[in-house]
Design goal:
Blueprint lengths: L4 H23 L4 H9 L12 H20 L60
Length: 132
């Protein structure tokens, strides 16, 4: 029985996290203070080059094995734009797909603004003119 893409990706990510934790332990050489320092150095803006060499190697290995496993399970892995042998400029990235923008003004034929008893539309009032 084949696994769903979600189950397969969960397995791949779980394996990658466990391998990265093991690599952090290896990089600390069994010293708890070094391990804590390395863990505290990981934050939202950390880059691959900021990580210890052992963790970089573990991530590279896990990425390669993830693609191999996806292909072995029967999933195709290709760029979004199409086949890799395609020549010419890269396709423009899809930005804002599925997002809705707020309307820029009232809809034609939409509801009218409420009126005051004098028949004039209500709205923000101007400050009174200074008398002088």
């Amino acid at each position: 029985m084949t696994k769903s893409a979600t189950d397969l990706m969960q397995d791949i990510l779980f394996s990658a996290v466990i391998d990265s934790i093991q690599a952090l332990k290896t990089a600390s050489k069994g010293l708890p203070n070094t391990l804590l320092r390395d863990l505290n150095a990981i934050h939202a803006n950390v880059t691959l080059s900021d990580l210890p060499d052992e963790v970089q190697a573990a991530i590279a290995t896990n990425v390669r094995s993830a693609f191999t496993r996806l292909l072995k399970e029967g999933y195709s892995v290709m760029p979004r734009g199409g086949l890799p042998e395609r020549r010419g400029p890269a396709p423009a990235p899809v930005v804002g797909r599925g997002e809705r923008r707020p309307p820029s003004g009232p809809r034609p034929g939409g509801p009218k603004p409420p009126s005051s008893p004098g028949g004039r539309p209500q709205g923000p009032r101007r400050p009174p003119k200074p008398r002088g």
